[in-house]
Amino acid sequence: xxxxxxxxxxLNIAYIGGGSRGWAWxxxxxxxxxxxxxxxxxxxxxxxxxxxDNAAIGNSIYDRDEVKGKWKYEAVPSLEQALQDADxxxxxxxxxxxxxxxxxxxxxxxxxIYQSVGDTVGPGGHVRALRTIPIYAExxxxxxxxxxxxxxxxxxxxxxxxxxxxxxxxxxIKAIGCCHEVxxxxxxxxxxxxxxxxxxxxxxxxxxxxxxxxxxHFTWIDKASYKGIDLLPLYAEFADKxxxxxxxxxxxxxxxxxxxxxxxxxxxxxxxKFGVIAAAGDRHLAEFMPGYWYxxxxxxxxxxxxxxxxxxxxxxxxxxxxxQSKRLVTGEExxxxxxxxxxxxxxxxxxxxxxxxxxxxxxxxxGQLGNVKHGAVVETNAxxxxxxxxxVMAGELPSQVNSMVNRHxxxxxxxxxxxxxxxxxxxxxxxxxxxxVTIAPEQAKDLYNKMLDNTKKYAPYG
Amino acid sequence: xxxxxxxxxxLNIAYIGGGSRGWAWxxxxxxxxxxxxxxxxxxxxxxxxxxxDNAAIGNSIYDRDEVKGKWKYEAVPSLEQALQDADxxxxxxxxxxxxxxxxxxxxxxxxxIYQSVGDTVGPGGHVRALRTIPIYAExxxxxxxxxxxxxxxxxxxxxxxxxxxxxxxxxxIKAIGCCHEVxxxxxxxxxxxxxxxxxxxxxxxxxxxxxxxxxxHFTWIDKASYKGIDLLPLYAEFADKxxxxxxxxxxxxxxxxxxxxxxxxxxxxxxxKFGVIAAAGDRHLAEFMPGYWYxxxxxxxxxxxxxxxxxxxxxxxxxxxxxQSKRLVTGEExxxxxxxxxxxxxxxxxxxxxxxxxxxxxxxxxGQLGNVKHGAVVETNAxxxxxxxxxVMAGELPSQVNSMVNRHxxxxxxxxxxxxxxxxxxxxxxxxxxxxVTIAPEQAKDLYNKMLDNTKKYAPYG
Amino acid sequence: xxxxxxxxxxLNIAYIGGGSRGWAWxxxxxxxxxxxxxxxxxxxxxxxxxxxDNAAIGNSIYDRDEVKGKWKYEAVPSLEQALQDADxxxxxxxxxxxxxxxxxxxxxxxxxIYQSVGDTVGPGGHVRALRTIPIYAExxxxxxxxxxxxxxxxxxxxxxxxxxxxxxxxxxIKAIGCCHEVxxxxxxxxxxxxxxxxxxxxxxxxxxxxxxxxxxHFTWIDKASYKGIDLLPLYAEFADKxxxxxxxxxxxxxxxxxxxxxxxxxxxxxxxKFGVIAAAGDRHLAEFMPGYWYxxxxxxxxxxxxxxxxxxxxxxxxxxxxxQSKRLVTGEExxxxxxxxxxxxxxxxxxxxxxxxxxxxxxxxxGQLGNVKHGAVVETNAxxxxxxxxxVMAGELPSQVNSMVNRHxxxxxxxxxxxxxxxxxxxxxxxxxxxxVTIAPEQAKDLYNKMLDNTKKYAPYG
Amino acid sequence: xxxxxxxxxxLNIAYIGGGSRGWAWxxxxxxxxxxxxxxxxxxxxxxxxxxxDNAAIGNSIYDRDEVKGKWKYEAVPSLEQALQDADxxxxxxxxxxxxxxxxxxxxxxxxxIYQSVGDTVGPGGHVRALRTIPIYAExxxxxxxxxxxxxxxxxxxxxxxxxxxxxxxxxxIKAIGCCHEVxxxxxxxxxxxxxxxxxxxxxxxxxxxxxxxxxxHFTWIDKASYKGIDLLPLYAEFADKxxxxxxxxxxxxxxxxxxxxxxxxxxxxxxxKFGVIAAAGDRHLAEFMPGYWYxxxxxxxxxxxxxxxxxxxxxxxxxxxxxQSKRLVTGEExxxxxxxxxxxxxxxxxxxxxxxxxxxxxxxxxGQLGNVKHGAVVETNAxxxxxxxxxVMAGELPSQVNSMVNRHxxxxxxxxxxxxxxxxxxxxxxxxxxxxVTIAPEQAKDLYNKMLDNTKKYAPYG
Lengths: 462, 462, 462, 462
Hints:
The structure is a homotetramer of 462-residue chains. Helix content of chain A is 45%, strand content 17%. Chain A is an alpha/beta fold and 462 residues long. In chain A, β13 (377-385) and β14 (388-391) form a beta hairpin. In chain A, α5 crosses α16 (399-421), α7 crosses α9 (231-242) and α16 packs antiparallel against α17. Chains A, B, C, D: Pfam families: Glyco_hydro_4, Glyco_hydro_4C.
């Protein structure tokens, strides 16, 4: 017997939201590049045509020479069929449509509340959660029934509440939430090493070692190192140097030409205020702080050098992907194999016992994050091995940060209960306490009601 | 041997802040009314003349017939002398003078930040804490050295941080913090029984049973009963009935004629929002919520029918007490024996093993309040017996309230560390995160600096 | 409205094991003596005739003048009928018959294992638990279905595992376990006050204040006081004085004439070894320690001056009660009203909100007992009020005692799982680790198998 | 800048017990084989000549070609000098001499108590701890004063109490305890793969992935895998196959020819009883169980196929090493470079940030081991990176094992307190509760006193 035993064939992946464009194609590329695993991917989507198109695209590359991981793709008409015999369940869905997203992000602007992303916290994140939780509650029930031993990997936002709902409804579930926001901060640290020390070609994921602590999109790093170099003192210098003007990753072009980017001024400001490195993009971070800090009005936002991501632009991008999808199905355009930088494959390999590793994941707190409620979903490092995800003890956030993190942790617990019990008033208690909702409760109630109306197709309340 | 053994003579009380007017006289009255204890009270005050005046006043009643508890009063010139051989240490001081208090309460108004009390949280509470913590750190050191086995009963605000500092500096201390704010809510419940059920003469402390949970001035009641009647449903009706107009305790006169009172509209609003009874006065409660809720501006305050307590009025009141003090010393005015309704005597009796009882106290969390950091000072019921204060497990606040409570818990931890390490920047992290500080961090920094300047005599920072 | 509201009529008590003789009659006496409550008691027993006899006996006193609490008694043929509309459920049953008890207690003697009681731990307690757990699991299911809001008061042994099973099967249950063993130690302390200080007529339950910590029949007291007197130093003297000869409560007659009594030598020895007061009878305490300490052989037992309670004697006593029962039903003998000293009535009054109080109860650990697993059933003080049992934080046992307590805590957890999953091997892991099982595992297995055979009617295992 | 930065020169190692023979030479070999680190090793030993001999031996290899890691060795006359500027402190001492060890191991045999090793638990481990704790308390004080930021790596037994003492005395210490017993079980699993599956050349440390849980020498594995193969079911078969006859690792020769080995019958028996893999050698495991299980008498020991390691043999071995030492110093014998298989080097590299890894270590419990007291020193996996040791959450031992583990955890806490406060009676409470002390307390006291007398040079008690 030899090395070969560390190979798994006949694997079964259920992909919920399998009609997604872009994201699904990335997964196909990643699977194709990995020689140790093969099997079938069952694509399930409420838009079945999209799932079928993706199956066609996925199968089109099977015979290519450069494809090392051989996977068959099949669009299935029901969740049950997708889940049947699954080893892994990947969930990446859009809860609701762009219409609801538009309301989430832009309606609050009428009340003076600006949101840069609107999918995690703030009024938009809140209402998106109310829409998503019932879907995830149903998913959890199905997984319990049809695939209780499968590993579930979630990519949908709001990440924390998606994973939290899965565990609430099916406590025995084996689910983790994965997000690349921390990677972005590791990239920034790699850039810093080049900028400040002239060190080139740092591999940000494998060579920048970080201790991650917090909740998704509001994670913090209190220890970071690169080959024995402590990066915290260097970051302090880096933050000082670029605090006023911001830092541009020049290879991306100017930050203001890309609504997903920023000049990291919030990164630097938070470090100077709190002494630990905020580990998500500025656009996400801004939404976790009181509204009058970074998102007071358009001038403030411009001054802090980050963008509001308009939903129009997402719609436009979606349309382009749809057109591309048609070309890929017909063969008019060849599928471009290209690794995404996501870690889905590495995670699967670890859970299969092929190669253990340590990475950051979103799972319920068992004590890995000190002074945060047990059971709340937190993001820290974990050690992944055969059929096992064991958190690494991350320690405790400094009190000045924990105050803000726990505010959200308990708001999220409230939102969860409100969504599961359809208690509109309870939901409002969390809404009014959100840091972006910097208006009197009476006005906040008015906004809340309008937003709920706009999402009632997905989350009908009282 | 008989009942007599449940009597303690030769007790030794150290009274820190023993020159206080009004409050000290209340204690004298209460001690005089209790037959089971006697001994000496050593008065220590930085204003030694005031302590001496109080000693004279206290001793003047010794021989009166109606005095059942015989106590000698002695003004001592040093803390050490006060603490020597103490069985109990009572602390009730004014940290700083009215000048600092004026800045605490009124300077933030220039930035649009209104405070109804300004001694617990908000900019005023914060800066008052920075002034108080060093004093309490020193007290703790002295107690450790001179009276490590004495029971310390604190009445000074900010209560939470006073008690927290004592335990931080001397973890072996036996200290509790006592506050009558919960009594006020029990009174309101007694009034409610009269109003809604026609039940008269309810003894609010002994007959209204409540489960107390939270931090001082921000406590909550999730269970309340009177002789088997569950008071929560009744309170729901009561809140509905008086929500719009407010409720007036008629025997006190109209609320707006007394800057320490309110029409309980915030009580009712919080109940309707959160489903549990807020157990402090409206003036205190308002300061724990985001500034744009109840304290946005003078119109909002008036609409919610409570008052800002102006420091001018405190100064005026202080002057009147000073004049009265002179008359009491000379005998021009006779000392009026009158029980205060405070529980100091009952607490002493319980700790002496004379009579056990359950009451609400402020002590470090050992688990009595769920999902609040261990070690943080919380207010719940406790069972007091011989030389022992054992918390009663209070359970957990609902998440919608816990979100707000923990925001303050961690702010207070930050303030503590900032004060003990004299870290001005760290202190600002808590300041900027205070719910009343609803302005951009840059402005907040400006306000913070001015306020620190105004208190620098007591708390010199960087 | 007046005091009268603190009265509850039309109460509904389900009495499971309602055919018991002796114990049921005591409850009837206690109920009859209490003026604030009245209603109906539904007696359910697998021996229905016994329940009917007890109903007749209970109803026979209804019209007596000295009866202040008016209760009707009704024998019901099914558990469902007993539970219907119950406010309280009292459980006091004999799991199995005297035949099984005989095997529990005396069969291990063939292997050199002696047991003084055999109903809690040791081989006898273990096998009794295996018999009892399935019964309690079924009870819990019925209570969940028919009376989920009723308060359950358990008196059956093994107490810990009875209460633990109820919560395991129905986590939402409101159950407490009550036991008078601690009362016995309080009586001993009262005797001590007379003996050592000449203080007469001490009320052991209301005047001897104790902090209770541990698991049922293996509880400890680290603080005890009487009217301000610390009883620990006095107990040290008392133990020294009577260590060698033992202490006889003379009003009971010589200890060796009563197989339920002892000369307290184990009480004194444990105090001298561990520094805290063991708060159960010597017969119970001996069984929690390694077998070679107090129960090595009959000589050792005699030297420690306590008895093994033979089951023959229990059978004989049972027969006498049966004859008395017949006389009480026919009226040949008049029912003798006499308070038992148990606290059932006081507990009911507290839970009805009539009169709050602090007493020791057996409930799952929420942190009231430090360094014992959360969820394990522990015995500490609790504060009982309207519909609420809140543990008082008891602190932590000294490590030298906690080592022994936790050994049993985890054994009990193992027994619970073994019984619920019918896993004979798992059960043996706990059996072999019991401190009384001081024989090689191979022999222990032999004994275990024989004992299980003897109880298979009630607990059939693989 | 390049790879080179992951190299550390000028490191400073303090080696306490640096005169040790054998163990020190192994470290020299390991250091010499590692190219990324170099510096100085300061050898401190109460036997200074031995330290000087070792310095000479260590320096003798400096110029050899095959030596990749260049280290200078210096014998220093005081602890202070050793600790000055230390980056790492390695502790490997013999507490007391062979005379004390002889008493520890063999004196209890006079009372019918047999010990296979006698250095961890049992009477021998207990008394060895009493001797060791004062030494470690003093070490901790010195480290606090002279090298508070150094990493301390302990190899001395009793491991748990050594590390526990360091943290008790200097809570800020950065210490870990390292032991190779788990490696042995991984080797057994590698052998199993060959035996049962024909898989050769398995790297036991890097390829056998295990989840470690417990306390040193009493650790357990509930998950084990090799390249995706779950090893637990295979171990069940393996245990069944070899349960009766035992398993011989043939390359070692027959077990009974080596007093450090066994035929793994206890390994198999514990697995069959408890369902998890015991992860230490049989000789250690036997001592944690009740004495009447495996160590009842010499016949029982022989039947279970393991050995008592006689101290005579250790003395003999020591003498041989002393002679070898002389030859190495004079150059009569050449130093043989040979890797030990210990992980000291890998641990140092990880703590320097050169290469992160996951390994099992002994550190205070922060929650990594469920339902074991926080602060107790436990052995689980941890993730080691730059200046950081973060436990991996190991989960919870099954209750049937936790009962035994916690018995020792609290005994160890008692021993610690007894040793630090020199409380002979308190120490006896733990002694009498040790599972090997299966005699009546009176006899146990006699043995305890004799053993303490024999060690009084190192641990003088009242």
